[in-house]
Design a protein that fits this description.
One of its GO terms (biological process) is pectin biosynthetic process. Its main location: Golgi. Its EC number is 2.4.1.-. By secondary structure, the chain is an alpha/beta fold. The chain has 16 helices and nine strands. The chain has a single domain, classed as Spore Coat Polysaccharide Biosynthesis Protein SpsA, Chain A. A seven-stranded mixed β-sheet has the order 3-2-1-4-7-6-8. A two-stranded antiparallel sheet has the order 5-9. Helix 1 packs parallel to helix 7, helix 2 packs across helix 4 and helix 12 packs across helix 13. The longest helix has 28 residues. The protein is globular and about 75 Å long.
């Protein structure tokens, strides 16, 4: 009788944990009300205020958008508040902010609001804001991933369907269930997430660029990245297989791919070290000589044909294959990951990293962000700004 009672309690605790994880997943996938408000108000400002529509950058600075003596950063996001933090932290951490060019890519619905923000809040760097709709070559015919992602029923069901169906809760652990939920984040099917694979086409005149995710904070001058010798490789990235953190920094190919699939088993090594997206220095000249984009497309299509049985987690797995052999490891101090996964992050290590990355569900702008890690992000939010105040985006 006692054993039956204990088993019942354990079952209820486990079910409660699964329920908590599911609610956290939905919270992470939702757009916070304040951020939604910010986008709407700035979009309205774009239509009614000529200053919000002014050309970015000003006409005399346009040639600098392709000047390779400048440091070019690329940021792809539909989150205006997050974009402002990335840009502000990068500029404030730079020893030569006037040499920075930011290329901000967003979607059509966010374009007006994003443009308004950077037009009305000038900084000592060159800013370009472009919508996906402004790239003429970015069509379904030229970019197969567009049609594949939009039309594939399996993808829609997987990312927007019932997240409990197909999960045997009695035979899985909360940790594994959390991983499965993480893999089903709707952001993984956003074209803004896939767009980085087209950087050589988007910026045909650039030699090098640093790509930044929107959930990072820059804490150190990043100009030395342009001096790193990539030794003929395309992608300078931090490896994620060498660290004590088993959740974030112990990732090999076996963590991302299904090696029971014959095509995966035949072509990949399960022990190969993975690397991080989020802060990457790309040699675009070397990239243009490789068929990285075609390899990416090939494997994306093969996974679709296999009903997503080769891998589940977003854009990193096809990139791990496409950039295979073209990655140059850079020092881990350049990019610290995992601030959105767990609350045990070492604060002293956070302070030392050049770039900190809130990858994971607990974003600093959401209600489920870790309280002790949020101030490192919020210090770059201008709470005196009228739009921030009016949308009640409050400092935590």
């Amino acid at each position: 009788m006692l054993r039956g009672t204990m088993e019942k309690f354990e079952r209820e605790i486990k079910e409660s944990k699964f329920s908590e994880l599911l609610n956290k997943h939905f919270a992470a996938s939702a757009i916070p009300k304040g951020i939604h408000c910010l986008s709407l108000r700035l979009t309205d400002e774009y239509s009614s205020n000529a200053h919000a529509r002014k050309q970015l950058p000003s006409p005399e600075l346009l040639p600098l958008l392709s000047d390779n003596s400048y440091h070019h950063f690329v940021l792809s996001t539909d989150n205006i508040l997050a974009a402002s933090v990335v840009v502000t932290s990068t500029v404030q951490s730079s020893l030569i902010p006037e040499k920075i060019v930011f290329h901000i890519i967003t979607d059509k619905k966010t374009y007006a609001g994003m443009h308004s923000w950077f037009a009305l809040n000038p900084i000592p760097a060159i800013i370009e804001v472009k919508g996906l709709h402004q790239f003429d070559w970015l069509t379904r015919e030229n970019v197969p991933v567009l049609e594949a992602v939009e039309n594939h029923k399996g993808i829609r069901d997987y990312y927007h369907g019932n997240h409990i169906v197909g999960s045997n809760l009695s035979e899985t652990t909360p940790h594994k269930f959390a991983s499965k939920l993480q893999a089903r984040s709707p952001r993984y099917i956003s074209l803004l997430n896939h767009i980085r694979i087209y950087l050589p086409e988007m910026f045909p005149n650039l030699n090098k660029a640093v790509f930044l995710d929107d959930d990072i904070v820059v804490q150190r001058d990043l100009s030395p990245l342009w001096d790193i010798d990539l030794k003929g490789k395309v992608n300078g990235a931090v490896e994620t297989c060498k660290g004590e953190d088993t959740w974030v920094m112990s990732k090999r190919f076996r963590n991302y791919f299904n090696f029971s699939h014959p095509l995966i088993a035949k072509n990949l090594d399960p022990n190969e070290c993975a690397w991080a997206y989020g802060m990457n220095i790309f040699d675009l000249r070397a990239w243009r000589k490789k068929n990285i984009r075609d390899i990416y497309h090939f494997w994306l299509k093969e996974n679709l044909k296999s009903n997503l049985t080769m891998w589940k987690l977003g854009t990193l797995p096809p990139a791990l294959i496409a950039f295979k052999g073209y990655v140059h490891p850079i020092d881990p101090s350049w990019h610290m990951l995992g601030l959105g996964y767990q609350d045990k992050t070492d604060i002293e290590a956070v302070k030392k990293a050049a770039v900190i990355h809130y990858n994971g569900d607990s974003k600093p702008w959401s209600d489920i962000g870790f309280e002790h890690l949020r101030p490192v992000w919020t210090k770059y939010v201008d709470y005196s700004n009228d739009f921030i105040r009016n949308c009640h985006i409050m400092e935590s």
